[in-house]
Amino acid sequence: MSSQTGAYILEKGEEALIGRAWLARHATKSIDVQYFIWSTDNIGILAAEQLLAAAERGVSVRVIVDDILIDAENRSLLLLSAHPNVRIRIYNPNLSVGVGFWQRLKNATTEFRAVNQRMHDKTAIFDGIVGITGGRNMADEYFDFDHKYNFRDRDILVLGSAAREMRENFDEFWQSDFAIPVSQIFAEELEEISSYDVESQSRELHAYAEDPKNFAPQVRHAVDATSERIPTLFQNMTWDDMSFVSDVPGKNEGTQGLGGGGESTNQLINTVKSAKSSILIQSPYLIMPEGGIELFGSLVDRGVRIRISTNSLASTDNIQAFSGYASQRKELLRAGVELYEFKPHPAIQDELIERYPHIAEHAPIFALHAKSMVIDDRISFIGTFNLDPRSANLNTEVGVLVDNTELARQLTQSIERDIQPDNSWHTTAEFNPDSEVGRGKRFRVWLNRLLPMEPVL
């Protein structure tokens, strides 16, 4: 069995969606998916419908979703999990699924680390040999289908050894005490579900997916036409030795409170420390964990150029996270780090989004959500890890790490395009673009900077 992995970077949301749909349609044995967010918007419902269709033709489907931001109704989860080929587990269900108000309040006040320890992994594995990981959650805004707010994101599709490692990590989470079956959470309610209920849910999902109001016919046609593109995509993959970076369920032992690091944290820190000439990072949220600014400063002092692409106040979807960045911005600049803040209406938007003419009239805001890194023009990382304390110490994270000059060239070209003047502001000691937003948003940042939230940002 080959130890190498073929990789292809998915830069566009529509390409990432079509790739997932095609792979789901052509899976013959198994589909395993793991997501931090799975919304009940068009994309989330359509993804569920694709998985159900696969299950109906005999494919084994396993799903792990984090508890904190799931918005599916309990009955919908039950009806899907009642299909004999579908199994759904909820990661660390202590705030949402099956948790009443008073228990939720108790957990939030007495189990602070536990409720903040989330599964941030995002993987989709088909037949155990092809996998996709990266920044995209299962919701409209991650695939350029939202009319008001979309993310500039990035995934990597892998075939071979790294995909098998991805499957092994999925199995570890599936078997862990953190992943609780929906059938266990709602054991009593499940007894009331009939085969008619399951069949009715199936018909409703398929009807929803066929309705042009929900899923534009041209997108479905694109999925069908992908059969012609997939062989070319596989032929154009870059092949090399690659490793799948991952954490153990729970991240760490939890003996250090909100700290403790993790396997993904250690691997990425060691990779950064190895830099000799350059580091290029893209992270939507930029709050350096303890010791991070000092590490970057020491690297700059020995001649390493560090550039970071992140969100501006005008583009960010997370005021709390931006407040942490705003508190550190001057220190980062003094350490010699070059900062580029993404614009909410970048010139690149019509290049990145194939269907941009369909949403242009709404003038949607764009924000970074890609989590990537290039070191010395040869080592690349694409995954789920944000440059913040939450990813470093609390959330489980995954990604693909590879030493390959061609993939590094492609990733560098993509990030450097994002930091061009038409797409990002170059922040310096004399200039930052916070004034591009109203006083209300700036006041919220100031207010959040007063709160001791940094360990959970």
Could you walk me through the main structural features you see in this protein, from its secondary elements to its overall organization?
It is a single chain. With 457 residues, the protein is an alpha+beta fold. It has 2 domains: 5-235, Endonuclease Chain A (Endonuclease, Chain A); 244-456, Endonuclease, Chain A, CATH 3.30.870.10. Helix content is 40%, strand content 21%. The protein has helices at residues 13-26, 42-56, 74-81, 101-110, 112-116, 161-174, 182-185, 187-190, 195-210, 217-235, 263-273, 292-301, 319-334, 349-352, 356-359, 389-393, 405-418, 439-449; strands at residues 5-10, 30-35, 60-66, 86-91, 123-126, 130-134, 149-152, 155-160, 179-181, 238-240, 242-246, 278-282, 305-311, 338-342, 365-368, 372-375, 379-383, 398-403, 424-427. Strand 5 (123-126) and strand 6 form a beta hairpin. Helix 1 (13-26) packs parallel to helix 2 (42-56), helix 2 crosses helix 9 (195-210) and helix 13 packs across helix 18.
